[in-house]
Amino acid sequence: MELLVFGHAGRAVLMFPTRMARFYDYENWGIVDALQHKINNGELQLFCVDSIDAESFYNTYIAPAQRINRHLQYEEYILQEVLPLMHEENKGDYFEVAGCSMGAYHALNMALKHPLLFNKVVCMSGRYDLTQHVTDFKDLFDGYHNEDIYFNMPRQYIANLTDDAVLNSIRNLSIIIAVGETDPFLPNNREVSQLLHDKGINHDLFIWGNYAHRPRYWKQMVQLYL
């Protein structure tokens, strides 16, 4: 799979793309350029990965169980190929994971499942339970549910986290969640924020004016939060 790397040093950021988007979209939308100063100064190094959402969550030609299995294969690619590459290219010890829209889902899910691999997670305009039907956004598993789906939906599994070692690892993360005040996913973001709060997990929830689910807002968000 293809990816793009921007920068030579600094905090390493794994950037997940938006829904069914590509590894070059953040560059095309000007989001990378919005971080040019930090990148050029060696403060930030971006690793923009590709998406297989069209083969997993949005592939209606295969059964829901196959959709989540394809996602798990994608997760293994990130863990076994991308993260080792990041460590090879970046000699620092501060790793972040971030994303916008569907990328925010990927980022939060990855960070919560593997908190020891990251120092920080930044989620912008995300949806953290893909089984929920929200306005025009349908349940991506058509009512089907199994253990794999449960363990990949942050809104579902956060509430039942009880292992102190896991919780303490998550508590060590810096967690930033940003969403627009008219974004249809705002209630989902508030619920996830409350679940984190109930587990004693410190985080920041920032609610932006308007819809804020567009590249022109994300360009501002990355400057503030990455």
Can you describe this structure?
The chain is α/β, with parallel strands linked by helices and 226 residues long. The chain has a single domain (3-225), classed as Alpha/Beta hydrolase fold, catalytic domain (Rossmann fold). It has helices spanning 25-28, 36-40, 64-89, 102-113, 147-150, 154-157, 164-171, 186-198, 215-225, and strands spanning 3-6, 11-16, 44-49, 95-100, 120-124, 174-180, 204-208. The protein has a seven-stranded mixed sheet with strand order 1-3-2-4-5-6-7, sandwiched between helices. It is globular, with a radius of gyration of 16 Å.
List the helices and strands and how they pair.
Layout: E1 3-6, E2 11-16, H1 25-28, H2 36-40, E3 44-49, H3 64-89, E4 95-100, H4 102-113, E5 120-124, H5 147-150, H6 154-157, H7 164-171, E6 174-180, H8 186-198, E7 204-208, H9 215-225
Jot down its keywords.
226 residues, Rossmann fold
SS element count, helices: 9
**Number of domains as seen in the coordinates:** 1
Q: SS-based structural class?
A: alpha/beta
Return residue spans where pLDDT drops below 50 for at least 5 consecutive residues.
Answer: none
Order of helices and strands: EEHHEHEHEHHHEHEH
Q: DSSP strand (E) fraction?
A: 15-25%
Main sheet properties: 7 strands, mixed
CATH homologous superfamily identity: Alpha/Beta hydrolase fold, catalytic domain
Q: Order the strands across the largest sheet as they lie in space.
A: 1-3-2-4-5-6-7
> Cα-atom Rg, whole angstroms?
16 Å
> What helical percentage do the residues reach?
25-40%
Write a concise synopsis of the structure shown:
This protein has about 230 residues and is an alpha/beta fold. It has a single domain (about 5-225), classed as Rossmann fold, CATH 3.40.50. It has helices at about 25-30, 35-40, 65-90, 100-115, 145-150, 155, 165-170, 185-200, 215-225; strands at about 5, 10-15, 45-50, 95-100, 120-125, 175-180, 205-210.
